[in-house]
Structures are given as structure tokens and as C-alpha cells.
Q: What sequence folds into this?
């Protein structure tokens, strides 16, 4: 019987949250707090300068880089190869498929909605695509939460899954904040990316991940003592 547990309610709410934001933004509307929050990270009277010392600006660029195609791509490759070499080849393929598909969807959504980047501050990082949703926020949520979920399915240990999820969420939040700090995204771009990322990764782990885990030969799992319960 279908049960309304937090594991179900959270991704469903996230999906509806993304849809609501997407429809609102696509209709040409905007939120007043978007402007206020972007300016909150800028020196009063000087929107070209982010708040904080120079090292903080550089650190934010570094954090933002973790959510780039290169950063997330390397994480995906490392996690996929680890699962593959440990004998969980179906899970490795499933993880790669989830991230690749999400990357294509992110590009399509940006083209379809075509929201302009923030124009009230000077960008502190280069941009090449439209603003909504934030690809860094969406793809970091998909990649990191999917990695945590697929590793959890492989290990069958709640403590390992819990640690991976906490680390994933810390990185996801920091990457999203860095995009607003650098002035390259409106806060609602990041929020929408998080919402879609949570919904996507939850679906990927719950259905694709579990299906792939069930397809793993029992003898393959027995060869991976480091990931065995």
C-alpha cells in the first residue's frame, strides 16, 4: 500500500515546488526577494564588489567550481569506477545514466525557459548559459545525492549512507550559496535547482537504483568486503 512517509512526501513536494517556480518564471514574473538577496552579498553602494575579504571571494569561486561540469563529472567518474571495480556494475551503470540524463535535462530547461542572469551586480564568474534553473544547484544535488544513495544501496549500511548524505548536503548548500554570492544566479534559480535535484535523485535511487541493486549477482557482492554489510 502506498504510504505518505517523508521519503515520499519530500521529493513530491520538491517536484511541485520546481514546477511552481518554473511556471512563474517562464511567465515573465519575478520575486522581489531575488534582488534583495543578491544585493545582500554586495558591498552597500558598490554592487560590483562582493562582501568579505579577497580570500572569501576566491574560496567561493573554488566552491562553485565543485558544481561545474568538470567537478561533478570527476566525482561521477570516481564513484562509478569505484562501484564497478567493487563488483556493483549494474549500480555503476545506473549512476552514470542518472547523471548524464540530468545534464541533458538541465541544458534543455535552460534553453526552454531562457531566463536572463542577474543584471544588477557585476558577475564574479564567467557564464555561458541561461539562468533558470541553476545547473550547478540542480546537477550537484542530482550527482551527490545519487552517489550517496547508490553507495548506500551497495553497502547496505545506514551509517555509511547517513555520512554520505550529510557530506552531500553540505556541498550542495555551499555550491548553491556560492552561485548567488558570485552574482551569476538569482536565489530562485538555485532553489528551483535544489527542488528538481531532490526529486530527480530520489526517483533515481528509489526506482533505478533499487532495480539495479536487485540485478547484482550475489557472488559479485561477496567479492566486495569493503562495501558489504
A:
Amino acid at each position: 500500500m502506498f504510504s505518505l512517509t517523508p521519503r515520499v512526501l519530500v521529493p513530491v513536494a520538491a517536484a511541485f515546488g520546481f514546477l511552481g517556480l518554473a511556471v512563474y518564471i517562464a511567465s515573465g514574473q519575478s520575486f522581489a526577494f531575488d534582488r534583495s538577496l543578491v544585493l545582500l552579498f554586495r558591498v552597500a553602494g558598490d554592487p560590483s564588489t562582493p562582501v568579505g575579504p579577497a580570500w572569501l571571494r576566491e574560496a567561493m569561486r573554488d566552491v562553485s567550481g565543485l558544481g561545474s561540469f568538470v567537478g561533478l563529472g570527476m566525482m561521477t567518474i570516481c564513484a562509478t569506477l569505484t562501484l564497478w571495480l567493487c563488483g556493483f556494475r549494474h549500480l555503476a551503470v545506473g549512476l552514470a545514466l542518472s547523471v548524464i540524463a540530468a545534464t541533458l535535462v538541465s541544458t534543455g530547461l535552460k534553453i526552454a525557459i531562457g531566463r536572463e542572469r542577474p543584471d544588477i551586480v557585476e558577475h564574479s564568474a564567467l557564464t555561458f548559459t541561461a539562468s533558470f534553473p541553476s545547473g550547478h544547484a540542480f546537477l550537484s544535488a542530482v550527482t551527490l545525492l545519487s552517489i550517496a544513495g547508490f553507495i548506500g544501496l551497495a553497502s547496505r549500511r545506514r551509517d555509511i549512507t547517513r555520512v554520505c548524505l550529510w557530506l552531500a548536503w553540505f556541498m550542495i548548500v555551499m555550491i548553491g550559496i556560492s552561485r548567488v554570492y558570485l552574482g551569476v544566479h538569482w536565489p530562485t534559480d538555485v532553489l528551483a535547482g535544489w527542488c528538481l535535484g531532490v526529486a530527480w535523485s530520489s526517483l533515481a535511487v528509489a526506482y533505478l537504483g533499487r532495480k539495479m541493486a536487485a540485478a547484482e549477482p550475489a557472488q559479485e557482492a561477496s567479492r566486495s568486503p569493503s562495501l558489504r554489510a
Observations:
- The first strand starts at residue 42 and ends at 43.
- Strands lie at 42-43, 46-50.
